[in-house]
Design goal:
By secondary structure, the protein is mainly α. The chain has six helices and no strands. Helix 4 (69-75) packs across helix 5.
């Protein structure tokens, strides 16, 4: 099956996505990294010929890599803070898992990024936030560029 056998439906808005800032308003089908991830041969082989993928959340790796609690806990050890220390949980479990999930999503879609960062599409943020919701006294921070990146 070739990449032309799988197609997407693009929309100007990510349906149902609850965004916190303008960086989170991207549709996954408008982001090159997401399109490339959905078109990769390894993804295409997981679906019947002619399947129309409409969202990056349909990627066969999205749920196990980005939404499974134990997968995220195990993945957390590979990440480092800006000061090169192992990333550890200092906030609520949900907040910690949301952070790791966003990093894992970026790696799933873009590969190793090093210090580079990209905002996630609204649909990915929405799925992650529904799986790992904020507590009543916590606020989403969303995507923010580092000061040195501006």
């Amino acid at each position: 099956m070739s990449s032309s056998d799988v197609s997407y439906v693009s929309s100007s808005e990510s349906e149902g996505a609850e965004t916190e800032n303008i960086s989170e308003c991207y549709c996954c089908c408008e982001l090159n990294g997401c399109i490339e991830a959905l078109e990769s041969d390894i993804v295409i082989q997981d679906f019947p010929q002619g399947t129309k993928l409409t969202c990056i959340t349909q990627h066969p790796g999205f749920n196990p890599v980005c939404l499974q609690k134990w997968s995220l806990r195990l993945a957390a050890g590979k990440y480092r803070s800006k000061t090169k220390k192992t990333y550890k949980q200092t906030r609520s479990d949900e907040s910690f898992l949301r952070s790791v999930s966003c990093w894992d999503f970026s790696e799933l879609v873009y590969g190793f990024l090093g210090n580079r960062r990209y905002p996630l599409p609204g649909c990915a943020y929405d799925a992650i936030r529904k799986t790992f919701p904020c507590s009543k006294d916590e606020e989403f921070t969303g995507f923010e560029l580092d000061d040195d990146a501006i």
